[in-house]
Amino acid sequence: MELPVYLFIFIVFLNRYVFGFYLTVIKRKTLDETIEGYEPTVTVVVPLFNEGRSIYDTIISLVKLEYPADKLWVTVVDDCSTDDSYEWACKAARQHPNVRVLRNPHNMGKRKGINHAVREASTEIIVSVDSDVIIHPTALKELVARFVSPEIAAVGGRVHVSNPNENWLTKLQTIKYYFGQEHLKNLERGLRSVMCLSGCLTAYRRHVLIELEPILEDRNILGVPIKYGEDRFLTHQIVKAGYRTVMTMKAMCFTKAANTMHGYFNQQLRWKRSNIVDFIVGIGHAWTLHPLLCLQYLSMLLLLLVYPFVIITNVQRGEFFDLAMFHVFLTGGFAMVYYFAPTVRSLPPWLRVHPISFLPMAVLMPVAYLLLTPLGLFTLDSSSWETRGHGGAPAAPAVPK
Question: Cβ contacts of residue 243 below 8 Å, gap of 6+?
Fold first, then answer.
C-alpha cells in the first residue's frame, strides 16, 4: 500500500484508540459519575417483531429488575408479528399488572413502534430494550444513576454476548463486541457525546424523545422512508439538539450473537446501511462537534468509502498477500489486547473466549468492506426488520461488579 494509506490508517488508529484512552485516564474520576438515591418513574419499551417464545422470557426478566415495582412499567409494542409473538407477550401481561402490550395498526418499523409507546407513557425515563435481550437485574439502577445533570439525555449500557463459545463465529463476535464498546467509544465517552447508543439497552429522558418525535417520525432520504439504524439515528439527533449522551459498563445486558454466516452478514449489512445513512445525513453537522469527534466522524466516512478501492487496487497490483498479512498482524494485536485486558479477565470463564478466535477477522473485515459497502449503498430503501431468528438469551448470569 502507498504511504498516504498507511498514514490515514495511523490517524484513524490514533484518534479512536490513543486519544480515547488518554481521555479515559485524565477523566477517570468523572467518566462514570453517578447520583445517589435517584429513582424516577421508568417505562421499559420493547419493540417486537417475530421473536416467538423468547419475548416472554425477556418480559419476565424485565419485571424482575431490581427497581421499585411501583415506579416500573413494561410496554411491548408488536409491529404486526406473523408468528405467535403477540400471544406470548399477552400471556406475560396477564401475569403481571405492570406489563402492557400495544399493537401497531400495520407494520411501521421499530422506531415508529417505540414512538407509539413513548406517547402512551407518562414516566420520566424511557428505557429501550431489544426483544431478544436479557437484562442484568441491576442494570436499570445503574442506568438511571448516570443522569447526573439535566443536559444528559441518554445513557447506554454494556452488551455482552450470551453464547460466546457456541462456535468460531460467536467467539469472533465476542471480541468484536468488546472492542466496539470498551475501546472504540472511549473518545466519545470522554467527551460525553457517544454517537451511537445501542437499542439493546439505553435509557432516555422522555421529554427529549417527545421533543425529537417529529424528526424521528419522518426519517427518510430523498423521500424514501428509512426504518433501520434507528438507535444510531436517535443518538445522533440527541447530540445534534445539544444534549449529552453517556455510556456505562456497569449496566449490562446479554444478547445472542449470530451463529451462522447468513445471520452474521445480514446483521453486518444492516449496520453498514445504518453507517452510510448516518454519514450522509450527519455530514453537515459533523463540523459542529468537538474537533476530535469531527476528525473521527470524517475519517470513518472516508475509511468506509475508500477501503474497498484499497483492496481492489492491491489485488490488481498483485499485492494482496501483503494486505492480508497486514490484516493478520492487526487482528493478532487486537486479540492480545483482549487477552490481557483486566475487564476481560474479571469475567466468568464462560463469557470469555480464546484470543486466537479473532484471527478470522483478518478475512471477514476486508470482505465486509469490499462487498457490504456497495451492497449497503444499493439497498438503502430496505424496510426489513432482519430479525436474527433465534431464541432468547439465558437468564442473566452473575458477573463481577
Answer: 151, 152, 153, 154, 208
CA distance 104 to 101: 10
Backbone angles phi, psi at 42, to 5 degrees: -135, 135
Q: Is residue 393 part of a domain?
A: no
Q: Residue 179: how many CB atoms within 10 A of its CB? A: 18
**Are the C-beta atoms of 281 and 221 separated by less than 8 Å?**
yes
**Cβ-contact 79, 386 below 8 angstroms:** no
Convert the pLDDT of each residue in 140-183 to its tens digit: 999 999 999 999 999 999 999 999 999 999 999 999 999 988 88
Q: What is the pLDDT of residue 169?
A: 95
Query: CA 352 to CA 371: how far, in whole Å?
Result: 30
Which residues make beta-bridge pairs with 129?
A: 201
* Grid cell locating 11: 490517524
**Residue 383's CB: how many other CB atoms inside 10 A?**
13
> Mind listing the pLDDT tens digit for each residue in 50-109?
888 889 988 998 999 999 999 999 999 999 899 999 999 999 999 999 999 999 888 877
- In this structure, what CATH number is given to the domain that contains residue 4? 3.90.550.10
CA pair distance 133, 147, nearest whole angstrom: 23
Q: How far apart are CA 83 and CA 362, in angstroms?
A: 38
**What are the grid coordinates assigned to 208, written together?**
427529549
Average pLDDT on 182-191 reads: 86
Q: Total domain count for the chain? A: 1
Within a domain: 218: yes
